[in-house]
């Protein structure tokens, strides 16, 4: 189930939108200002953010910039500001869509679904483990602002395990998938690479040893 974060300092607006999106099959989280939204993003797996601009403490434009910088998720700004310059500022801050108030709830739903389709297509080569993004196309791992370039076999091993979280892979299976059927070494190579991955990463996921069999990756709750 997709999880939406609705950020608006107006309780009635949050309640109306939250009730509608819940009926449409989404799980809804709420925040009443940008600072609170940042805390939710850090502690929850959010799939899309809907935010107002005019909010106390941290406004919507600052929240939009923060979200775009730290999370690869869709963003929709809802605002009563309907001037072209206001929309320009919203898009420059990183929003994917800008919806002016008042709006029809079904139209907003269409936009949410369209963004999910767009992101699903664009992210087909990406695996997400909370804030960690494994980009199989560019062979890099992104952790917030940090881009990690792993040795090729370590990257391929991590991507293989992360693509199927919870599934147990035997050492022989991993040798075949990562090193190939003609590999002349032994299965201890897998153990060495797993050890290196554990040393590199201490959050977002855990690689478990399944005694006598192999390994599986578990995505940690945030």
Automatic annotation (TrEMBL):
Give the source's domain of life in one word. Answer: Bacteria
**Primary subcellular site in the record, as a coarse category:** cytoplasm
- Boundaries of every OmpR/PhoB-type domain copy: 124-219
Q: Which InterPro entries match?
A: CheY-like_superfamily, OmpR/PhoB-type_DNA-bd, Sig_transdc_resp-reg_receiver, WalR-like, WH-like_DNA-bd_sf
GO molecular function list = DNA binding
- Do you know which CDD domains this protein is assigned to? REC_OmpR, trans_reg_C
Q: Give the subcellular location.
A: Cytoplasm
Answer yes or no on keyword Transferase.
no
Q: Whereabouts does the entry annotate DNA binding, in residue ranges? A: 124-219
What range(s) does the Response regulatory domain occupy?
3-116
Asked if Transcription regulation is a keyword of the record, the answer is yes
Q: Which UniProt keywords apply?
A: Activator, Cytoplasm, DNA-binding, Phosphoprotein, Transcription, Transcription regulation, Two-component regulatory system, Virulence
Q: Per its UniProt record, what Gene3D superfamilies does this chain match? A: 3.40.50.2300, 6.10.250.690, Winged helix-like DNA-binding domain superfamily/Winged helix DNA-binding domain
4-aspartylphosphate: which positions carry it?
52
Q: What job does this protein perform?
A: Member of the two-component regulatory system HssS/HssR involved in intracellular heme homeostasis and tempering of staphylococcal virulence. Phosphorylated HssR binds to a direct repeat sequence within hrtAB promoter and activates the expression of hrtAB, an efflux pump, in response to extracellular heme, hemin, hemoglobin or blood.
Q: What is this protein called?
A: Heme response regulator HssR
Please tell me the species this chain comes from. Paenibacillus eucommiae
């Amino acid at each position: 189930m997709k999880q939406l974060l609705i950020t608006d300092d107006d309780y009635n607006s949050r309640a109306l939108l939250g009730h509608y999106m819940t009926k449409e099959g989404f799980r809804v989280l709420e925040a009443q200002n940008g600072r609170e939204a940042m805390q939710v993003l850090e502690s929850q797996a959010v799939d899309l953010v809907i935010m107002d601009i005019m909010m106390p403490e941290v406004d919507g434009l600052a929240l939009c910039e923060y979200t775009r910088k730290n999370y690869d998720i869709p963003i929709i700004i809802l605002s009563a500001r309907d001037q072209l310059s206001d929309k320009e500022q919203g898009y420059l801050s990183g929003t994917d869509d800008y919806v002016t108030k008042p709006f029809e709830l079904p139209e907003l739903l269409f936009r949410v679904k369209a963004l999910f389709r767009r992101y699903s297509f664009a992210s087909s080569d990406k695996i997400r483990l909370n804030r960690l993004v494994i980009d199989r196309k560019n062979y890099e791992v992104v952790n917030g602002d940090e881009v990690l370039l792993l040795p090729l076999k370590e990257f391929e091993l991590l991507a293989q395990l992360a693509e199927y979280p919870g599934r147990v892979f035997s050492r022989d299976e991993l040798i075949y998938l990562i090193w190939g059927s003609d590999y002349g070494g032994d299965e201890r190579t897998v153990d060495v690479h797993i050890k290196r991955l554990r040393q590199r990463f201490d959050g977002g996921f855990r690689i478990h040893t399944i005694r006598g069999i192999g390994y599986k990756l578990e995505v940690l709750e945030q």
